[in-house]
Amino acid sequence: MTTAASTADVFARIERERDTYLETLIDYLRIPSVSTDPAHTNDVRRCAEFLRDRMAEAGLTAELIETARHPLVYAEWLGRSGAPTVLFYGHYDVQPPDPLEEWRHPPFEPTIEGEQIVARGATDNKGQSFAHVAAVSAHLAERGELPINVKFLIEGEEESGGESIEAYVRQDAGKRLAADFVVVSDSSMYGPGQPSILYGLKGLLYTEIRVRGPGRDLHSGTFGGAVQNPLDALAHILARLRDPESGRVLVPGFYDDVRSPQEWEREEIRKLPFDAESYREAIGVPELRGEHGYSTLERVWTRPTCDVNGIWGGYQGPGAKTVLPARGGAKVSMRLVPDQDPRKISEAFTRHVHESTPLGVVVEVEVGHSAPPFLVVPEGPFVEAALRALEDVWGKRALLVREGGSIPIVSTLHEVLQIPVLLIGFGLSDDRLHSPNEKFDLPNFYGGIRATARLLDLVAARPS
Ligand code: BES
Ligand code: MN
After folding, report:
1. 189: number of Cβ within 10 Å
2. Cβ of 69: how many Cβ atoms within 10 Å?
3. How far is the CA of 321 from the centre of ligand 2 (A)?
4. Mean of per-residue pLDDT scores for the chain
5. pTM strictly above 0.70
6. For 77-122, what is each residue's pLDDT tens digit?
7. C-alpha distances in angstroms, 274 versus 44, 268, 270, 278, 329?
8. Which ligand neighbours the alpha carbon of 184 most closely?
9. Rounded CA separation 181/158 (Å)
């Protein structure tokens, strides 16, 4: 193995250009690329064009790839034949910003508060994935070339299903997307100043349950007792999803394919610094609750869950209304772990809901989007290079961690391209992603740029 070039020249360039990177990030964050909301379709496209233009300015060949919904942004620099190729993945779309009244400043008017930038998308995922772009840009500006080949595939639907990228990656089948490894920064570090490499993400299964009873709302005195109340039925169905005492999901077969955490893993998790009391305090619950027999980190990282995300029906206004509602419903999601199969779980779930439904109402289960779980053994030359890059920047060895969140395309990239996927998050657990006042710590933004720049040099040092 040849030794890695020093990255001091590129680090110095990053230092000189830090304000330029920040200004570009601010402009990027100003574009309300809310992918789930049709009212923002043009903003989403404008955002894709903005990103494409910035990548072209950096010296990459960049273009939009049209899809059935929002465009993909693709860019490449392939000037080093024989050298390894990295594929950077990220997303330029964001979650809806509501509730708006809880933001200190409007969500698409980025605000610097001390060492943080506050805006929707700051950490998830514009700030984090733009760090990759800035790193490549700094290398090209400083040296006129890159130490390895790079490709970028940035999608505009991660927060709303991601069907387009899924179709694109499968039909490409590793032709244009051929690479030696993938880098994704769309997750968190274990704590401030503590770099981390993620080796597992949960899968997801999103469902909606709808219960219908009488053809119209009824007077609860003149008809009460004569019909099954749909909301009572719904409450009964939901109460049978999970046992509040043991914390176990009650859908038959739910745990059949769950791979238990390995002993080495439980050991590693036990060794991590974790302060349950400040964790509890930070989320504002009276007590931490979950599946019996597992610690909090094991529950969040390694055990599947089932949660009601929304519930509706009946009278919600002020005062009282004596009524039997005609219908009601709930959104229920499940976070899955290896080797649970979203399709199999969705059948088991639907059957269970039907079996739990009292007579006298009609129930309907709609299965929405899903994502398979992702888990790898964190080892190999690219993991080694990433560990070193992170240590060179943060002065600390990275921890190996899992997360409870999902990034749907990650398992597809791994499966189709058959190459290692490095998940290196630069966010923090208090970044408030999907919540009001989402933020990204600027030291993590700049650290992310430096770590990515360093990684390119370290990978180049390996014989390909
Ligand atoms: N960046 C997150 C996923 C994430 C969050 C990973 C925290 C690790 C730690 C991503 O943008 C996200 O929010 N994904 C959605 C996927 C869903 C909409 C299909 C999620 O997890 O809810
Ligand atoms: Mn997200």
Report:
1. 26
2. 17
3. 39
4. 96
5. yes
6. 999 999 999 999 999 999 999 999 999 999 999 999 999 999 999 9
7. 39, 12, 9, 9, 37
8. 1
9. 20
Using alpha carbons, list the distances in angstroms from residue 175 to 86, 205, 417.
14, 30, 9
Of the listed ligands, the closest to the CA of 91 is: 1
- Separation of CA 206 and ligand 2 centre (Å): 15
Candidate of 123, 158, 307 to mutate for ligand 1, largest count of ligand atoms within 8 Å of Cβ? 158
Least Cα distance to 217 among 331, 361, 359, 322 occurs for 322
Residues with a CB atom less than 6 Å from ligand 1: 124-125, 158-159, 186-188, 204, 369, 371, 403, 405-408
- Pairing status of strand 116-118 against strand 111-113: antiparallel
Give the CB-side neighbour count of residue 12, counting CA atoms within 13 A. 6
pLDDT (tens digit per residue) in 340-384: 999 999 999 999 999 999 999 999 999 998 999 999 989 999 999
Cα 391 to middle of ligand 1, angstroms:
26
The C-alpha atoms of residue 252 and residue 325 are separated, in whole angstroms, by 30
Distance (Å, rounded) from C-alpha 52 to C-alpha 45?
11
Mutate to test the pocket of ligand 1, among 159, 422, 426 (most ligand atoms within 8 A of CB): 159
How many other CB atoms are found less than 10 A from the CB of residue 346? Answer: 18
Q: Is 212 helix (H, G, I), strand (E, B) or coil?
A: strand
Q: Is residue 1 over pLDDT 50?
A: no
Q: Which of 123, 407, 435 to mutate to test the pocket of ligand 1 (most atoms within 8 A of CB)?
A: 407
Q: From the CA of 423, which ligand is nearest?
A: 1
For residues 212 and 265, give the distance between their C-alpha atoms in angstroms, rounded to a whole number: 46
d(CA 172, CA 151): 14
Ligand nearest the Cα of residue 301 is: 1
CA of 80 from ligand 2 middle (Å) equals: 34
